[in-house]
Specification:
The structure is a single chain. This protein folds into two domains: 236 residues; 238 residues, Nitrilase/N-carbamoyl-D-aminoacid amidohydrolase, CATH 3.60.110. The chain is an alpha/beta fold. It contains 16 helices and 14 strands. Helix 13 packs across helix 14.
Length: 540
Amino acid sequence: MQHLKYLIYSLFFASLMWLGWTPRPFFFTLLIAFVPLLILEDELRRKNKSAWWILLYTYLAFLFWNLFCCWWVANTYYGTQEISSVIAGIMVCAVNALLMCLPVFLFIRTKRKLGLKLGLASLPLYWMCFEWMHLNWDLAFPWLNLGNGLAQYPQLIQWYEYTGTFGGTLWIWLCNISIYVFFFSEHRQPKKISKWIYTSCIFFIPMLISFAISVFYTEYKDSNSPGKNIVVVQPNIDPYNTKFDFNTWNDQLTTLIKLSAEKADANTDYIVWPETAIPQGIWLNEIDSNKTILKIRNFLRSYPKAKLVTGFSAFKYYETQPTVTARQFSGSSVYYDAFNSAIQLDSTNRHQLYHKSKLVVGVESVPYPAFFHYLEPILVKFGGISVSLGSQKNRSIFLNDDSTSVAPIICYESVFGEYCNEYVQRGANFIFIVTNDGWWGNSVGHIQHENYAVLRAIETRRSIARSANTGTSCFINSRGDISDETEYWKPAAIKKWLPVLSEETFYVKHGDYLARIALTLSALIYISTFFFKKKIYASE
C-alpha cells in the first residue's frame, strides 16, 4: 500500500504540471506541483529508504509529466513507420525524464550532507543548471523548461524582459518550496504571521509587478512612429503527402503567390512564407538562375517595396575541405551540405541568407557525431537522418533598404531565448518565425510552439510575425499579445502594421545571467558537500 501511495504522489505531481502547462488554463498549479514530490522525498527519507527509491518515484513522476505534456512527439510518423515514431516519441520522454532526475540526485546529496535549509536552497539552483544544459548542448530539448509553462499568460510574466524564462523557473520553485516549508515540512510553523506574509509576497509580488508593467507598457511612444506593413501566408500544404512531392511544386508555388496577392498591395513592406516553403532544394551558387527564384522575383515586381522572407531547402558544393556535416556524392570526391534555410528576396538580383543552426536532434542532426555515429542507422529507421544538416555559427539578420532589419528564426530556434537575443543584438527590429508545425497533427504541440513565441516577444520587446505552413500563423506584439490567429489546417493570409522597435531590454543585453549565477552557486554548494559528514536527518 505504501508503494501505491508513493505512486499517487508521482501521478499527482504530473497531473498538476499538465493542468498548469500551456495551453491549459490553470497556471497556478505549477506553483504547487512540486510539493507532492518534496513530501515524497521527506517521507522516504524519514523511513530511511535509499536515495534510489526517491529517484525511482521521481523518475516516474517526470516520465508521466513528459508523456502528459509532450505525447504529441509520438504523433509524428514517416510513411509506413508510424509504430517506429511512437516508440521514438516514448524514448524521447523516457530519456528526458531521466535527465530531469539529475538535479534531484544532487539535491538529495546536498540535503543529507548540509541540512534542510541549504538542501532546499540548492534545488532551484541545480534545476536551473539542468535547464541551462538543455539549452546549450547537442541533445537540447528545453521544451519543458519551467519558465515556458507560463507562456499562455503574458500578463503574468512581463518581467521576463529582465530575467528571461529562468526568472519564471526560479519563481515556480520559490512558490513550491515556500508552500512545502509552510504547510508540510516537519518544522513548519503555520501560526507565525510572518510566514503568511513571506509566502504571499513570493506568490503575488511578481504578478503585481507584471500587471503594472503590462498596464503602463506601450510598444512605441509616438503614434506616428515608423512601422512596416507585413503580410503572413499560411499555405497549408500537407507535409507528408504533398509538400515534398516535387511533382506538385508548381501548384504549391501558385498557392503561395495567390494567397500573398490577396493581402499585398503597393504599401506592403514584407511578405512572409513558412519554413521550407521552397522545398525542392536550391544550390546556393545557382540562386539567381533558379526558375523558382526567377518566378518569385517576377511576382515581386508588382510590389516594389516588398521583401519576401521565406524558408527553403538549400545545398552547397565543397570541392575541398568539406565540413563535418558534409555528404559525399556517390562515386565522387565532391562533397555537399544540406541546409534548412531562410532567404530574403526582392524584385532585383539581391538576396540574403540564413541557415538554421538550432537543429532538431535525431531529425535534423546527429548529436556529437564523433561519439554517436553508430546511432545513425537507428535514427534513419525512426524517421531521422544519417548526417546532420549544415548550420552557421552566428545569427544573421536581413536588412532592408532603410536599415531596418528582421530576425529570420526557423521553427525550433524560437524555443531558445538567449539564442534569439543575438538577432536583436545585431540590430533586428522585427522577429519573423517561419515554421512547419503540421508534423504533429492537430495536437497541443503546435499550440505550445506558438505560445512559446510569446516569450521571445516579451524578452526582446520585438513584434513577431509568425508564418506556419500547417500550424497556426499570427502576429504577436511586443507585450506578448497574440492577434490575427489563423485556423489550423486552413490556408490563409493575414496582414498587419507593426512598429519599428530598436531598444534593447535588460535580458537582451545580459542573457541568461540567472543561469550563470546558478551554475556558480551550485558548484560551490556541491563542492562543499564533500567536506561534511553525512547527516542522518536532513533537518539536523
